[in-house]
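During the reporting period the student researcher (J.K.) took over the structure-prediction task from the postdoctoral fellow and processed the backlog of single-chain submissions. One of the processed entries is reproduced below for the supervisory committee.
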Amino acid sequence: MSEDPMAKRPVPTMRDIAAAAGVSQSTVSRVLSGVPTAVPIAPATRQRVLRTARELGYRPNPLARGLRGAATNLIGAVVRDFSDPFFAGVIEALVTESMAHGYNVVLGHVPGRMGDEAVSLTTVLETRHTDAVVLLGDMQEHPQLLADLRDSIVPVVALWPGTSPREFPTVDADDRAGIQAALSHLVSLGHERIAFVNAELPNEYRAREEAYLGFMRDRFGAVPPGYAQRSPSTLAGGDAALRRLMDRPDPPTAVAASTDVVATGVLHAAHSLGVTVPDRLSVVGFDDILIAAHTVPALTTIRMPISEIVGYAVTQAVRLAREPAGAQRRPALEIFKPALIVRDSTAPLAPN
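J.K. obtained the following structure tokens:
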């Protein structure tokens, strides 16, 4: 009877490699772990073990390695919100950057409105199986998770922490500089009646809204009544916010939004209302997510330097993971500046 090619082959072990290579199992373990040894292993023996491991199709078990205290070459990523298109782009960049360093990524999700018992570190991510943990987003709603990470020997790097306490090495963007760049662009086009739609984020993170309010007061002395709108961080939220603004007796000639998702909702409402963009209304978003370049018209926005932020964070995580156990890891903050990307949704103020 011929052998079924689809039959599942047994997973080779270190014992199998040792038998096939004619060496002890301890020698195989030392070669495959890559750790320095007191007794040197002959180069020919090392090559024979590696060649045999490849021929047998051996793959190390990262969980077993983690239990033994060896490096697993895994980075744990704890994500606040999988549904946010911004974090989808961040995760993609994180995986790409981690692989460039020889690491894979394990994802853990901590959705809002869940009790701490549901998001404790032991149920979200077993840190003993990862070499480092990267936090993506504001985790202030999950104090038990933060406490577990704080007490862990595994290094942690936080990205876009929002209102979370600065307890770990942290990487963030200069939101104030981004909003100022967006508003300065609109002012350079002749706009003064500039409204703002702030997406409601966890823990009332309002740095971008505060930057708008400060800019308008410094430049024009005050914010027109009703021009600072708040909405859910959704397309429908941006749509509804613009409808409220256009119902005003003095509707804005330009709108800045705190996220591209909300700005896309603004564009949709403008089209439905017959308010042409950018002839009658200029619109600016924030983040430069994938859809921003493909809206109609293409969205002028503030580009979040995701690649640079993630690259820096992964480099720090890998560096910290390679430090001796128990090494002191002080909180630190690295800030990256966003950039204005001008597309078709903004134009000079039309004459009356």
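The committee noted the following: DSSP finds twelve helices and twelve strands in the chain.
J.K. will present the remaining backlog at the next meeting.
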